[in-house]
Amino acid sequence: MPIEHERRRFRRYPLRLRARIRHDTQEVDADVLNASVGGCLLVAHLNVSAGDTIEVSIPDLQVPPTSVCVVRCAPTEGGFLIATCFETAIADEPALALASSTPTPSRVS
Fold first, then answer.
1. Locate the PilZ domain: which residues (predicted)?
2. What is the CB-side half-sphere exposure of residue 69 using CA atoms within 13 A?
């Protein structure tokens, strides 16, 4: 099923926040492109597979290193788009709405 037709349980908020991803022995900078209470979309120079567990920290949302499940990973010009699902809620709707209205410069190029 194409991404644009997926059903969403939670509202997605467009973001541009810095994040840090760790997978096995690799640790890379990333950008959070959007997030919801249920997961987030990242872009990073890290190729992972659906089903992998990665550790993500998002300082601007005061999210400490947290394990998330990779739903899908697709190559793009800026690295890889990594769709994730949170195992437990790591941010609430008001925090996401506030972060969505406060732009932060990108780190990944």
1. 6-88
2. 9
**Around Cβ 60, how many Cβ atoms within 10 Å?**
15
| pLDDT tens sequence across 11-70 | 889 999 999 999 999 999 999 999 988 899 999 999 999 999 999 999 888 888 999 999
Distance CA 23, CA 53 (A): 7
Residue 36 tokens, joined: 């919801």
Nearest to 26 by CA among 46, 56, 52, 51: 46
* Nearest alpha-carbon partner for 40 in 105, 96, 98: 96
Q: What is the pTM of this model?
A: 0.82
Task: Report how far residue 37's alpha carbon sits from residue 10's, in angstroms, rounded to the nearest whole number.
Answer: 6
